[in-house]
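Fold this sequence, please.
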Amino acid sequence: MLLEQRPLIRRTLRARGVLPADLDDLTQDTVLGAWRSMRAGRFRPSPALAPADALRPWLAGIASRQASHYRDKAHRRHELPAVDPDRLSALAAPSPEARLVARGLLRAFHRLRPELREILALAATGLSLHEIAASLSLPRPTVATRLRLARRLFARALTRARRWPR
């Protein structure tokens, strides 16, 4: 069941800022960590849920923590992300306006508080409110409130960003 959830793990890691070059390694680390946790008895699904349904938010939480450790390690070592030569040609193709819009989206996203960014990123990977709440160990109403606030603040930042001169 763990290996079937690799696409979810990859989406979660990618949404949390893991570089494509490190995605396979971190996916493997997440699966291995989940397997060890299962063997140690730390995966205890609710009897009300099917094990497969309980597994998704649990794995998303493990993947989020793995991505956090990944970012912390890069910061301590003062690593700079390596530029993939294949991506350079893709960056040259779009118009400068598209890159400005993307930069504005990222700026608006990073202006959110970290807890709002995390919930918005997990929602963007396709997780439901229940799954996000379970992976972050938060009550579902808190997740719903934070997600609503994050969407509103993100939309407000985007409307401010549209005032750029074209």
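The chain has eight helices and no strands. Residues 49 and 143 are 20 Å apart (CA to CA).
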